[in-house]
């Protein structure tokens, strides 16, 4: 049995790790380095990631694997995240930490939440209506709606609720009241505590997973898939046959660049995603202690910024900090880097994150061409059509992008493990 794996991110590498010495595999990575979006880049003695990629651990097998792989190179961190609104910093989650807001905004949020809480709201699969029925119009107005519009660059009235999971905490009335008038509410949400490598950025994880793995080929872009002949074609024209194909690259483009039937391609073309651009900065050390800050207001072009050096001080030279700033567009979006960088620097000065432009030692723009998949009304049906076809053609498409879902690194590693277990079961059969 020969297995071809497309992509060397956490999913592809974890699958290869499980297959090692049991099944012949080969990994193709389009970039010049392994890691996918979970790699780190060093510039001017700063280590940058593709924004904040953190480890949220919840399953025994994958947690043990990550602890073993990173060994002593791992830090346990208590979340410090906030929302910036109208000059105020509000602790995350917004809906249960209203205490720091002006009394008029706080009162509106609490009053509308209570009205909503008392009503018996009908269930809905629409995110816009779900948020209104869950939090009330003021919490939605100040945070839920503007932030998610910026994050997804998509009409939130067309989003379903299938992506929510634990990503958006749903509080009860006692937590809202306590967080508005008594004290900060902590340990709520899917990431109150997270882990991160002490050295090397998140890329140190994928590098460790790849150790002692053979047959990983970088700079190997897969341009076409022939599902009938079970063959992939690379950019240099070479062809590689497989018995089973494991895909961790964006599902939409895997299908479009193949000889799949018309109806399968049509389903893939309907899959939607956004694009995220990341401005990484090396700056003089500042006093900000937050790990990340959300910016729902339209006057800011970015939707979130964070500080790598608040994950680990080892990611920047002494007396310097490093940070990431995220901008979202639709899938065809393009931004004027020079213009946006200039405006962002002004915003950072006004926010007192930097004193002036001289505080910036280095900059690095990165992009995630397929960042967040869009959960619209057509997604579920189109995925069903595509996955049914792929299963019949010996293809396992999995991970954040192969599975076309909103997920996190540990889940992606779990996906890689499960793909490998499925392959080993087929081999045993």
List its salient traits.
429 residues, alpha/beta, seven-stranded mixed sheet, 13 helices, globular
Write down the overall mean pLDDT: 95
Helix percentage range? 25-40%
Report how far apart the termini are.
12 Å
- Low-confidence stretches are none
Structural class: alpha/beta
Shape: globular
Total DSSP E strands: 19
The biggest beta sheet is recorded as: 7 strands, mixed
Structural features, described:
This protein has 13 helices and 19 strands. By secondary structure, the chain is of the alpha/beta class. The strands form five sheets. The chain has a seven-stranded mixed β-sheet with strand order 7-6-15-16-17-14-18. Strands 9-2-1-13-19 form a five-stranded parallel β-sheet. Strands 10-11-12 form a three-stranded antiparallel β-sheet, with no helix packed on it. Strand 10 and strand 11 (231-234) form a beta hairpin. Helix 1 runs parallel beside helix 7 (203-210). The longest helix is centred in the last third of the chain and has 20 residues, at 409-428. The radius of gyration is 22 Å and the shape is globular. The mean pLDDT is 95.
């Amino acid at each position: 049995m020969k297995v071809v794996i497309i992509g060397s991110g956490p999913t592809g590498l974890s699958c290869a790790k499980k297959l090692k010495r049991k099944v012949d595999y080969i990994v193709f990575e389009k970039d010049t380095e392994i890691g996918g979006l979970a790699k780190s880049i060093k510039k001017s003695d700063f280590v940058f990631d593709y924004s904040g990629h953190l480890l949220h651990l919840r399953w025994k097998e994958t947690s043990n694997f990550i602890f073993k792989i990173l060994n002593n190179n791992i830090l346990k961190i208590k979340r410090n995240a906030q929302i910036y609104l109208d000059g105020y910093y509000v602790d995350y989650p917004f809906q249960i930490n209203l205490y720091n807001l002006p009394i008029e905004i706080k009162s509106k949020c609490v009053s509308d939440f209570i009205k909503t809480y008392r009503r018996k709201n009908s269930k809905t699969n629409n995110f816009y209506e779900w948020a209104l029925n869950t939090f009330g119009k003021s919490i939605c107005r100040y945070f839920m709606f503007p932030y998610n519009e910026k994050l997804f660059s998509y009409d939130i009235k067309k989003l379903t609720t299938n992506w929510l999971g634990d990503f958006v905490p749903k509080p009860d009335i006692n937590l809202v009241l306590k967080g508005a008038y008594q004290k900060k509410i902590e340990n709520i949400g899917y990431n109150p505590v997270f882990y991160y490598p002490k050295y090397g950025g998140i890329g140190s994880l994928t590098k460790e997973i790849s150790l002692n793995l053979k047959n990983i080929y970088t700079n190997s872009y897969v341009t076409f898939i022939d599902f009938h002949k079970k063959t992939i074609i690379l950019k240099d024209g070479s062809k590689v046959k497989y018995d089973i194909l494991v895909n961790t690259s964006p599902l939409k483009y895997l299908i479009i660049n193949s000889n799949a039937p018309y109806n399968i391609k049509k389903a893939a073309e309907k899959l939607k995603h956004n694009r995220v651009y990341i401005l990484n900065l090396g700056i003089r050390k500042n006093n900000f202690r937050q790990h990340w800050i959300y910016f729902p207001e339209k006057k800011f072009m970015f939707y979130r910024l964070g500080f790598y050096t608040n994950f680990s001080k080892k990611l920047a030279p002494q007396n310097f900090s490093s940070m990431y700033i995220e901008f979202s567009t639709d899938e065809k979006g393009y931004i004027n880097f020079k213009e946006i960088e200039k405006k962002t620097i002004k915003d950072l000065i006004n926010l007192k994150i930097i004193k002036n432009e001289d505080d910036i030692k280095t900059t690095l723009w990165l992009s995630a061409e397929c960042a967040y998949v869009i959960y619209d009304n057509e997604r579920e049906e189109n995925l069903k059509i595509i996955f049914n076809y792929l299963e019949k053609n010996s293809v396992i498409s999995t991970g954040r992008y192969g599975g076309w879902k909103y997920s996190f690194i540990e889940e992606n590693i779990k996906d890689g493990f499960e793909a490998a277990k499925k392959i080993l079961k087929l081999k045993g059969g």
